[in-house]
Specification:
The protein has 365 residues and is of the alpha/beta class. The chain has 3 domains: 158 residues, Response regulator (Rossmann fold, 3-Layer(aba) Sandwich), CATH 3.40.50; 93 residues, Arc Repressor Mutant, subunit A (Orthogonal Bundle); 86 residues, Orthogonal Bundle (Arc Repressor Mutant, subunit A). Helix 9 packs across helix 12. The longest helix has 14 residues.
Amino acid sequence: MKAAQHATAARTRIWLDLPSGGGADALRAALMAMGLIPQPLPLDAEPRRRALATLNDGGLAFLDVSDPALHGARPLSALLHTLPEPSVAGRILLSRTQGGHVSPQDRAWTRSQGFADLLPDWSGGPGRLALRDVVAWVARATGLDEPAPHEWLAYTRVLAGAGSDQGAARAIVWGLTGESPEACVARLAESLDIADRRWRLHDYPHCFVGSQAVEHLVHSLRRPREEVLALGQALGELGLLAHVMQEHSFLDQDLYYRLAWSDALDRVDAGDLWQTAEEGLPRLTDTRSHRGREYADCFVGEDAVGLVAARHGLHRVDAWLALHRIAQWGWIEHVTRARPFIDGHFFYRWRGGPGTGGTGDRAGT
């Protein structure tokens, strides 16, 4: 490394607040290959504030917002309040490595708040596609030369060893399709037979049949059935595929499923959706009873879906998906933590308001 580059790297402060996995070791390796020495971002408020103040002097920060307990009900807004000034948000890259998928809507909202971007993980699959973009961003932000990927390898071997992320859901999708989970689902939304269906006098809009999807994927991916099932279950783990009543994982059976993907929803501003939830759901809150047991400070799933659909002019499926995504962030929770978010007569709590926490029995009919 040239002397000037070495001096720049030595005075650039790099702060990390990341859980293990999600390509965090690969990110550290790439930074070290540039001569940058990442440091853990302090957890205590005052040291953390002082560390973030160095962003004014050319520092960079990499933060994960998977855990809502650390960042409040509107994690990006809460994070902005911890910054010395709003302009340094552009020197912060965010990830959500333990929180499922990241939609285009999530990323657009993140950038609208002034942050550099929001990534689902730091690696981006076998080809490290996301990491290449991250390295290019770091080079632009610091004025350092961008290292070639092979220059990361020595650091990666030391930090990551054999690689602990290979069994993760995102790695499964990358390995079987060669694309990110988000891209995979966007493609499936165009190729699967998604239609309104009916079963036992109940209508299920915008869904597909599990066995038909398996057949389609076996032929289109040229993969055996067991690998196709693993793919569907990995997408389910990431919150990108769900049984219409959230009662089954992805199976090669005549069951109805939905993709958690919507062009209509992605045209709605994510900040507006958060505001609807934050202001509207507490107004739906009441004490409710089921089978002789009372549940305080909760709302009904189908009422929440109706509220979001009416407020934003969405089909109920798209409104469900909006709330499903907010639940994935951890701020809508079934009263007994027994169910994910469902458009039905099930009881939920808004974790940003009163009555946070659950009890031990199943609720909802």
